[in-house]
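User: Please predict the structure of the protein below. I'd like the answer in structure-token form so I can feed it into my own downstream comparison script.

Assistant: Understood. Taking the following sequence of 273 residues as input:
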Amino acid sequence: MPVLDLIKVYREKCVKCGLCVADCPACILDMGDDGPECNVDRGCMSCGHCVAVCPTGAMDNKYTPREKMTAVPKTMLTGQQAYDFLRSRRSVRLFKPQVPAKEDILKLLDICRYAPTAGNSQGMYFTVISNPDTINGIRNATADWMAQEVEKGTENKRYFKAVLRTFHEKKTDIIERQAPMLVFVSARRLNVTGISNSEQCLAYAELFAPTLGLGTTIAGFIQACGISGYKPLINLVGIPPKQKLVGCMMVGYPRVKYRLMPERQHLKCEFKE
């Protein structure tokens, strides 16, 4: 007999199909004589799969109540529409000077909550910076970090030297691209999948951004500087001691409009049997 109250089963609806048991990522559900049951809920990932997969509406989960879940829309994108949508996304590096509206940024980051994370761990924290002085400090701190990496002779020495030459000698902002806003992502220090989780979240944001009239691109140099733990940058962003910086994205209203889809290298795939 189950000893915990993780799940509730409406027995009159349950047909014992076993889909909830088979689809549970944590493998904590079993099929009993009266339907699915759980004897240990500590492994529950709060993903809601057991509730969402039930064809008769017989399952409920205290961590993901059915009454708070939204039905999947009956009308979805066609394969071609989805393909064109995904393919049309481009990185934006030319921005208008005005700072994006707060309501647009909240919409942009809200969709990040639905990005996949390892073990449904979630736990992403966002810091939005638009103060010009702070952004300038972040830009210069990143340049200082790159200069230190060059001096140390790290594997990125040659690349960083070229970037710094463009930044200092040509007076071209190749680091932050004069974006009016930076979005930083942080995770708890013990979250070993923080960087990959951040990549997923920011990918969602980048795909959603054009629907809000926004342009984005990953701030790779700043992100690498932050992931390295460079203190001057961490202090400027204001990351709490119990967190670590795992991602950074530039955001703004695009100054240009692209009329052609991007081309890429040919697909490289090998099937092995």
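That's the full token string. The longest helix spans residues 132-152.
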